[in-house]
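Two proteins, back to back. First:
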Amino acid sequence: MMSLKLELADIYIGLGDHLVSSDARPGARFSRAIIDSRQAQPDDLFFALHGEHHDAHDFVQAAFAAKAGGAVVSRPVDAPVDRSVFHVRDALTALQRLASYWRSRHNVRLVGVTGSVGKTTAKEIIASLLSHRYQTLKSTANFNTEIGVPLTLLGLKPEHERAVLELAMYQPGDIRLLCEISRPQIGVVLNVHPVHMERAGSIGRIAAAKAELVESLPTDGLAVLNADDPRVASMVRRTNCRTVTFGLSEQADVRAEGITSRGLDGFSFTLKLRGGSSSAIDCRLPGSHHVYAVLAAAAVALNEGMTLDEIAVALRSARMDLRLTPRRGRNGSTLIDDSYNASPASMTAALDLLSETGGRRIAVLGHMRELGAAESEGHVAVGRHSVRTSDILVVVGEDARLIADSASAAGHSDVRRFDSSEDASANLRDNLKAGDHVLIKASRAVGLEALVEALEEA
């Protein structure tokens, strides 16, 4: 759901020959594009998309009842005489074509961010830095797909000077499509890990899919690549534009030295550039594993004309909407809620953050999905990593048993197994004490958010 001021001429030009027919109210203008009829307001344009579980054409009347000004449909619908209906071959394609046209009307420099883990954090930091100098649009929530990216682009306004989009990949070709729609001038690739292996099939295919971003950049663009990830660093050969690297290695153009962690309170380091310039950086993001996202953001900001001093000031004051959320737990404990999603890389990073906290360190972990052939290896690696990063390991669900088995085999002294989040929360609820830090992380389908609710301070 994004703001815009679409005239009828914009719709006709943007949709082109994809528009089959229209029954538009003369002089109609639309202030928002929406895909959820429950959000409908006057002057909204409702796109009736086909979803996995429903067809939004069934909700066109609900959108009109809420005073939506028009609808984009691919089959006949009844409409009040004072509303506009645009008949297209496919509503999703229409949304994408209109967004691409709207993007072409705005002279904005656009940054695309992809990677197996950390995309949202990097997007947030990049947008936060750029907003200190430029009017910046960023994708919100999970608007990183073939639906979300077009909705974000339709939020472009004349005053926007920069835009930062998160680009998700579920199968090869996804990022190429998103780049065709959004036409980024700058592409950031954070890492390549075995995520979505069930769909992609192999780590090589995942790397090739991520590389679609740098392959899509114009010759006068910029590819920002992780020097410490060999699969990402090698993408320098897959683009025709200039490249800048970031990382901890001395070969990186933008690198970090002397990292000091304060756990949930952030971390500090020295930011060094190839050529000798440096700056002391203090960042309030929880966990020093975020240093890669900060370095990528700094590389983008430097390319966009910001100084090291500006970057340091912006990072000190940065406030970002991140999924990992510290919460007050029972009996003076602290919950580290990262229950939204999980992969081996993000799980070990979260465990590293837990290890940087004080008091008893309790890790509540569940199944990681969509790992394909890497599933067993990934769960075993997480279990082993938990030995040195947690004092108590709580494993929820039979699907995650390999985490518990490998932790016990590697010498973890306190491994607890439970069939459900309810059983786990019952065990922990009255045993938490002041100073405890509890990490809660699994794939979203495991439903550990219920455990978070049960352990939060009453």
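And the second protein:
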Amino acid sequence: MHRWQWQSWQGLPYLTCSLLQDWSHGFFTQQFRLHAPEDLAQVLRPSAQVYRVKQVHGNTVLSASQIASEAASVGELSFPEADGILTENTAQAVWVCTADCTPVLIADTQTGQVAAVHAGWRGTATEIVPRAIDRLQEQGSQLKNLLVALGPAITGEVYQVSEAVAAQIGSTVVPQPSESQVALPEEAPVLEALRQLPDSPLLPDSLPGHARIDVRRVIALQLAKMGLDEAQVSIAPYCTYQNPEYFFSYRRERQKKVQWSGIVSA
């Protein structure tokens, strides 16, 4: 069982995962709200070069060199649009911010390279985490050497969405409807297939036309579909919506406040 441990920096709490113990990393809490990634790098590794992007709920993944090239062409204060970042050299710190979406940190035990991904429901529906892993494989990573930590995010029991959204997310991990099912409502076959899964990410909701879905569980299923073993993946036992003492939640507060998560390449 992977351990999620509370750490402290100047009296402020943040989380680490034992799965990533060989990399400087952290899932930071709302207590760090006044600190930008450039500040937070001092917590992990002061000498690291910081990389971040303008998150747009898509599935674009950029490398550190692509981000640097963009900054050189349009100015350092402008960040390219993407939702995933991967490193190429040592001492590169990659960062994403979240406030209910899933912060995903990925590390390669052989190359030392890492990635950070912002996985909201839209990014998950377009498989941004598998896409980040594909990019790492293009750089020489092998699936067997990857470790993935899914940080604090909103849990399925409190994440209400429309059935159409649930089906859009879930369609990435269940077979597509057959021709014999076309007479059913578009999302019905997908939702039924999701319900049949062991430890299903789909939960019932009392409001007609709605469901509750665990996005982190869907991401874990996407990773299993790619071939990652269960032991290579860890999910934080914290919900941003249900733990207001530590985390901002857009669903709870309807305010654009975020917490940062980052990891440094070895």
